[in-house]
Amino acid sequence: MYENITYETILKRMLARVPSKIDKREGSVLWDTHSPTAIELQILYLELDTILREAYGDTASREFLVLRCRERGIAPYPATHAVLKGVFTPADADVMGQRFSIGSLNYVVTEKIADGEYQVQCESAGSMGNRFLGSMIPVEYIRGLQTAELVEVLIPGEEEEETEELRQRYFDSFHESAFGGNVADYLEKTNAIPGVGKTKVMRVWNGDLAPASMIPSPAVQEWYERVKGNLPDEAASWLAAVYRAASEKKLTCGGTVLLTIINSAYEAASETLVQTVQEIVDPERNAGEGYGFAPIGHVVTVRSAQEKEITIKTELTFESGYGWDVLRSTLETAIAAYLLELRKAWAESPALVVRVSQIETRLLGVSGVLDVRNTLLNGQEENLILEKYEIPVFGGVSG
User: Fold this and answer.
1) Backbone φ/ψ region at 244: left (φ over 0), alpha (ψ -120 to 50), beta
2) CATH number 3.30.300 is the correct assignment for the domain at 176-206+254-304
């Protein structure tokens, strides 16, 4: 705002207010006394410009944006620790709580999954914990342990929230009020769970079930009376609870919520991550009772988006000295980057469309490729429209 207020401008304005009969040339007493003042005033304008810039969410640097966000009850999402699956032999080796290392990273065993299989958490926060799989070395000697290996990322580690993402959340807070289990509330709280990248919320997702169809007919009542005495105790108890609820018209398709998620690496969520989110949102053992952040009466189901493998077949014309063997890795990287862009936009799209034109554009952008034609997606020469809860993953490219 004050870019034009320079030292020279200020000094000129100051000297212009002095009568011409007084010597105000450079080197004069008047000039020498005004010049330092003009410098200080320029510094003052620079500081004032900084204050104005930092006072608004649109232009504030990260430090002051964080302070501005506090006024809205918003804080940057912190970096999180990756959780991986570790396999140990023999299966009865006592590894709970033990520390292991791969390269410069250390991991600690936190929870048993099955015999010989454990959840292992990276001690360093951030995405670096997602990068390494393979054999681990115990930090301290473990009697009887033969092998220790990381085989799968269960919950990806995340870096601290980026400044522009935080800025967007700040502006979004003025447009949508998150409260009481509305869509904004579910999105805000679910996406804040470590490991979750994107979420789609669907209310009354079992709305295709008519409440009237749940009320027992006379034929059903007769069947129930006939079979209830022949069932095991647990089955009889369950059937009695369902029958009573249906008879008293307490079964309804209202109050159900479906959360479909992908992880922070924009891939399908693991079963461990799905169960973690389910426990935080609405524990299954207390479904609808408000023991998670879901309001009382909301029965929430959490599941992962489904991966749709995309295979590509195309005919390429290469420059002299290039060919499939030389460029395959670069071509695969270009296509994978496009599919990643689509996955990042998944939550905001009714359904993703993998476009032939975009694939060909990315391939033409690879140095050494002259022409692209006859591109097929999963064997079809047309755009591929995915289902609402599908995300595209790269399945390979061939000529």
Assistant:
1) alpha
2) yes
